[in-house]
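testing teh design pipeline on a random one, pls ignore if ur not involved
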């Protein structure tokens, strides 16, 4: 049985989906799909239709949130303990962003050594932004294993297979250019 890796992107006008054979290295493309949607579309039903069969236990689903609704900062701490960083990141972010982040979920990367202490990248994402992605998936019984932040998630994903990459992402309301 093929272990499918399913990545999808939901925009206001369409859903793009890539289905890969996860047992191959690098993964082999099984299907690249796109469906037009409207604000009234049932996102979960559209995703199920694109899959052409119910999600299987071995399937791995991932997507990325659009970065423009989030706050991302590199933070420096005198410690690298994950629990301490998790506790301190919100307080540190609150002092560095121009908005109230009390209704945001905060997450951080593992700490890496820096000249002075340890650095991590922390992000504050509005809870309703996450709910807008997760609610249709929950309703359609699609288990999401990875929710990343664009363009960081895409950049991290391609680094496993290629080097010296130029990642270009163009949408109606954003243009992202990353040299990886």
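output:
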């Amino acid at each position: 049985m093929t272990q499918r890796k399913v990545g999808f992107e939901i925009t206001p006008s369409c859903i793009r989906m890539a289905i890969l054979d996860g047992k191959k290295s690098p993964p082999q493309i099984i299907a690249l799909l796109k469906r037009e949607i409207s604000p009234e579309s049932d996102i979960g039903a559209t995703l199920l239709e694109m899959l052409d069969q119910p999600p299987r236990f071995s399937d791995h689903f991932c997507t990325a949130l659009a970065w423009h609704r989030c706050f991302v900062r590199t933070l420096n701490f005198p410690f690298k303990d994950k629990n301490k960083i998790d506790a301190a990141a919100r307080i540190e972010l609150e002092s560095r962003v121009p908005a109230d982040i009390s209704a945001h979920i905060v997450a951080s990367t593992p700490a890496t050594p820096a000249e002075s202490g340890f650095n991590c990248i922390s992000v504050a994402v509005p809870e309703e932004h996450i709910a807008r992605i997760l609610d249709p998936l929950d309703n359609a019984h699609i288990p999401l294993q990875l929710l990343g932040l664009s363009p960081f998630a895409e950049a991290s994903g391609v680094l496993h297979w290629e080097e010296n990459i130029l990642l270009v992402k163009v949408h109606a309301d954003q243009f992202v250019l990353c040299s990886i």
